[in-house]
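Input.
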Amino acid sequence: MKHKFDEGQKLYGADGEATPEERYQILSDLEVEFTERLRNKRNEMLAETDWTQAEDIPQAIRDNWKPYRQSLRDITDTYSSLNDVVWPTKPE
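Output.
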């Protein structure tokens, strides 16, 4: 079984070069770490814009920010490397 992050890079297990099972586990662990880091960054960016959805904010402003916020929510479905992430641009 090949992990989606497996690009043939050298990986080392307990006794030298990783076995296929160790490779899969190492890459699975990296995927979990990546996902957590991506979600943390995304959550920070969402929290910075929570004010835009408050009831006392004009509807036009709330509507202007909704696509940006949705793009942030969708980002975890799009990227598999933090180096490749293209963050959406905040509305003006």
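Helices lie at 20-48, 59-74.
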